[in-house]
Amino acid sequence: MKLLLVDDHPLYGVGFAHALGAVEPGMRVLNASSLEEGLALAVAHPDLDAVLVDYHLGALNGIEGLRRFGQQHPQVARVLISGDNTPSLMAAARAAGASGFLSKSQTLAEMRAALRVVADGGLAFGLLPRSALPEVQEGAAPQPTVRQLEVLALLAHGQPNKRIASMLGIAERTVKLHITALLALMGARNRTQLVVVARERGLV
């Protein structure tokens, strides 16, 4: 298994790579100390099984990192790492396109098991209730949440983000998060294609 860890604490990255290598012989972990470095490494290593993004990542947070990787390297599975293992953070990670969540309090064996699930195309979110995740069934398309469907309907009517935010009573940044999640869920490259796919599926 080949992983990329994006964490701005070099000592943690080195220790994490060494520890995982000890419990999973043959596992290779590349380290990047910034999001930009990680994105560049992903270009140089197209055979990555997954990228692990730390939630506290300098001026950015890991949720933004997940979105950036999803935009530039959608074929690579994404995992958020954090010392905070709250359901809301896990759900936010999933909404941003993550396939898994690792808590820094987990044992190495638990991390290894979760990473295997993600590398095999599954989801690994620990204690996050299944109801908090979009339903993803084998052979079926992922289903948007109720709020995402509301955003989608307004998008289909040509409304800009600012107007959508006003009509739904949410922040414009939240609208952008929902759209990014929808792009990942439905495999669309841009807003126009997103609406086309949504119409094909009978969602709008």
Distance between the termini: 40 Å
Major sheet: arrangement of strands = 2-1-3-6-7
Tertiary shape: elongated
Name of the CATH homologous superfamily of the largest domain: Response regulator
Can you tell me about this structure?
Pfam families: GerE (PF00196), Response_reg (PF00072). Residues 137-202 form the HTH luxR-type domain. Residues 2-119 form the Response regulatory domain. With 204 residues, the chain is α/β, with parallel strands linked by helices. Helices cover 49% and strands 14% of the residues. The chain has nine helices and seven strands; from the N terminus they run E-H-E-H-E-E-E-H-E-H-E-H-H-H-H-H. Strand 4 and strand 5 (60-61) form a beta hairpin. The protein is elongated.
Features:
Arc Repressor Mutant, subunit A, elongated, two-stranded antiparallel sheet, 204 residues, alpha/beta, Rossmann fold, 2 domains, 5-stranded parallel β-sheet
